[in-house]
Design a protein that fits this description.
Blueprint: E1 14-20, H1 27-34, E2 41-45, H2 52-58, E3 62-65, H3 71-81, E4 88-93, E5 96-98, H4 100-107, E6 118-127, E7 130-131, E8 139-147, E9 151-153, E10 162-164, E11 168-179, H5 183-203, H6 220-231, H7 238-250, H8 257-288
Parallel strand pairs: 1-2, 1-4, 2-3, 6-11
Antiparallel strand pairs: 4-8, 5-11, 6-7, 6-8, 9-10
Helix pairs in contact: 5-8, 7-8
Length: 289
């Protein structure tokens, strides 16, 4: 990370919020660049069984333990209840890491004079120790830095985004999403998420109006949500196969070698196919009633 720590001043008006659970092995990596930006870091821990709480407190974080229901509820609880010191919030997951470029970009913003109420940042996937350069989701965009009162997490079971209520701008720099799990752990987690995604599709989306609106000409987040809406208009099963081919072939995922094959074979192929299988299964059960 950044070697010249004088290049970034702490306490620039940003409070950081991190959700954590059993993150002792990786949380120091997440905290290191954040501590260059602020002296106000809050960790919401879901009653970890390892040393996550001790590690975070040892690094100067305010740690609050709160029972986990789902990501949206946990994020919004943090927004509503944490004693944030500053008027801007930066939300980060415990397996994410701000790059040098993103730290410098955020530090360069004069938030007291900011023309925007929030900022969208990139997120790149790190799989098997390397950043994926190609494929449909090698880089995604997320609304993570916003003025207090101008952001909440949409009420979705899976693939939740923060929704801004004011003007937003994009920072052309990224954080890293470290997918450090073994393949067994990765597939177990995604199997659980496929249940959530299938349920979300079957119920027709969130009941709340506070969601990312699909818009083919909107922000990067809105364009992605539009593409996802169109995806679910395609036939069951075939859309998963088409998405794998799009991500791995058309979006050049194969150029990431074995990592690209494994990641997109699992994420764009197996995971999306599994979601469709669960939707099909649920529909058949409903038809028999």
């Amino acid at each position: 990370m950044i070697s010249d720590k004088s290049a970034v001043l702490p306490a620039r008006g940003i409070s950081v919020v991190i959700l954590a659970f059993n993150s002792a092995a990786t949380i120091a990596r997440t905290l290191a660049p954040l501590r260059l930006l602020t002296d106000d870091i809050h960790v919401v821990d879901s009653f970890s069984k390892d040393d996550t709480v001790e590690v975070c407190r040892g690094l100067g974080c305010n740690v609050v333990e709160h029972a986990f229901t789902n990501y949206a509820a946990q994020r919004n609880w943090a927004i509503d209840n944490l004693p944030l010191k500053y008027g801007w919030q930066l939300h980060v997951d415990a397996d994410e890491e701000l790059t040098d470029e993103l730290v410098r970009a955020i530090a360069a913003i004069d938030l007291t004079q900011s023309p925007a109420d929030g900022y969208i940042v990139g997120r790149k996937i790190v799989f098997w120790g390397r950043v994926l350069r190609y494929g449909a989701i090698a880089t995604t965009w997320h609304y993570r830095l916003f003025r207090t009162g101008f952001g909440r997490c949409e009420d979705r079971l899976y693939d939740q985004h923060f929704v801004g209520s004011g003007t937003s701008k994009r920072i052309n720099a990224s954080m890293l999403d470290h997918q450090d799990q073994t393949i067994s752990e990765w597939t177990t987690r995604h199997n659980r998420w496929s249940d959530m995604e299938a349920t979300e599709v079957m119920r027709g989306g969130p009941a709340s109006d506070q969601v990312v609106k699909p818009d083919a000409t909107g922000s990067a987040i809105e364009r992605k949500r539009h593409a996802k809406k169109r995806y679910y208009e395609l036939p069951l099963f075939w859309r998963a196969i088409a998405y794998f081919l799009y991500s791995y072939v058309i979006k050049l995922g194969f150029l990431d070698g074995t990592r690209g094959l494994v990641f997109y074979g699992l994420q764009s192929g197996w995971f999306r196919f599994l979601v469709d299988v669960k939707i099909y299964e649920a529909q058949k059960i409903l038809d028999r009633k």
